[in-house]
């Protein structure tokens, strides 16, 4: 800066420069920083921090928004990272083998009864199980046969029950060829881990079906496995459709379905939809496997169903 007092004393004098004025602009304001330099440095740090934060968010799974399938107008939602799932394996210790009582205790909070009305207004009831919770909401997998009437607007109410808890649920999305439906409720609940072995199930394995409000699990054996179904010998009635098929570790292998069953007298074989099939449309499993249940969140302000022509 010029010495102002001498500048205005005489127009014939040449202004004198101080040592500070002779320094380069950057040295003069940024080392050591002047008031102007401090302001500029603070602004640059704030902008850099915001840019780094944006990069971290868009690269995280929280920022992954699944697309809507226009073919059937259903909605799929983003995946919560596996680390956020309270039931995800946290150690390398293998899960213990459970007996029927252990299976019942582990699956009890997760398996709910599901009731609604069919297209003719008649009561229909089955089971469902928690796929995951996120943002104060819980998502249940169940059989589409139980809630099919709710795929049109207006549809009947869907009620889910577990013990003394009874709440209304909304149909979020569905996949007809797999007999899968995803319900959403406004209450959080625990979920079961999914079968994470390769293969997750094979012929001869002992399995259990746990239905909502039905008491003790029913034990059986797997007779055959294909990409489309798990064949077993546990009798599946209307109440058990939509229930989880579990292995001896309490892991979900599939969903019991009556829609997959062939109809013939003396039927002894029944079928379940492999749990990995839920990753095709109704759930976004993120990592491409069914080793960790996917949890989902709405992409809109509400969860009304879509009319399907």
Low-pLDDT windows of residues: 1-11, 57-74, 76-91, 297-309
Structural class: alpha+beta
Total strand count, please? 12
| Percent in helix | 10-25%
Summarize the helix and strand pattern as letters.
HHHHHEEEHEEEEEEEEE
Any idea how many domains? 2
Distance between the termini: 78 Å
What is the number of helical segments per DSSP (H or I, 4+ residues)?
6
Major β-sheet strand ordering: 1-2-3-6-5-4
Output mean pLDDT: 75
Q: Which geometry do the CA atoms define?
A: elongated
CATH architecture of the largest domain: Beta Barrel
Could you please describe the fold and organization of this structure?
This protein has 309 residues and is of the alpha+beta class. It has 2 domains: 4-59, no CATH class; 62-279, Thrombin, subunit H (Beta Barrel), CATH 2.40.10.120. Helices cover 17% and strands 25% of the residues. It contains 6 helices and 12 strands. The strands form 2 sheets. Strands 1-2-3-6-5-4 form a 6-stranded antiparallel β-barrel. A 6-stranded antiparallel β-barrel has the order 7-8-9-12-11-10. The chain is elongated, with a radius of gyration of 30 Å. The model is unreliable at 1-11, 57-74, 76-91 and 297-309 (pLDDT under 50).
């Amino acid at each position: 800066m010029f010495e102002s007092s001498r500048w205005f004393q005489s127009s014939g004098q040449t202004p004198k420069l101080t040592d500070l004025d002779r320094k380069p602009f950057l040295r003069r304001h940024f080392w050591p920083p002047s008031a102007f330099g401090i302001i500029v440095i603070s602004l640059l740090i704030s902008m850099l921090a915001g840019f780094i934060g944006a990069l971290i968010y868009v690269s995280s799974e929280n920022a992954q928004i699944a697309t809507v399938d226009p073919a059937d107008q259903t909605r799929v939602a983003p995946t919560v990272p596996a680390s956020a799932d309270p039931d995800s394996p946290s150690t390398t210790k293998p899960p213990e083998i459970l007996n029927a009582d252990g299976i019942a205790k582990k699956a009890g909070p997760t398996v709910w009864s599901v009731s609604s009305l069919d297209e003719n207004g008649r009561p229909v009831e089955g089971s469902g199980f928690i796929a995951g919770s996120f943002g104060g909401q819980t998502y249940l997998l169940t059989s589409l046969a139980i809630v099919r009437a709710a795929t049109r607007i207006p549809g009947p109410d869907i009620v889910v029950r577990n013990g003394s808890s009874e709440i209304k649920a909304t149909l979020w999305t569905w996949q007809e060829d797999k007999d899968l439906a995803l319900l959403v409720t406004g209450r959080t609940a625990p979920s079961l881990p999914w079968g994470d072995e390769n293969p997750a199930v094979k012929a001869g394995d002992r399995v259990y079906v746990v239905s909502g409000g039905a008491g003790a699990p029913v034990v059986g054996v797997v007779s055959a496995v294909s990409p489309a179904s798990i064949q077993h010998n546990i009798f599946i009635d209307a109440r058990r459709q939509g229930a989880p098929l579990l292995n001896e570790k309490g892991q979900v292998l599939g969903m019991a379905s009556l829609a997959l069953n062939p109809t013939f007298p003396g039927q002894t074989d029944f079928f379940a939809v492999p749990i990995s099939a839920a990753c095709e449309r109704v759930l976004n499993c993120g990592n491409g496997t069914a080793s960790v249940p996917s949890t989902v969140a709405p992409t809109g302000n509400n969860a009304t169903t879509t009319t399907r022509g």
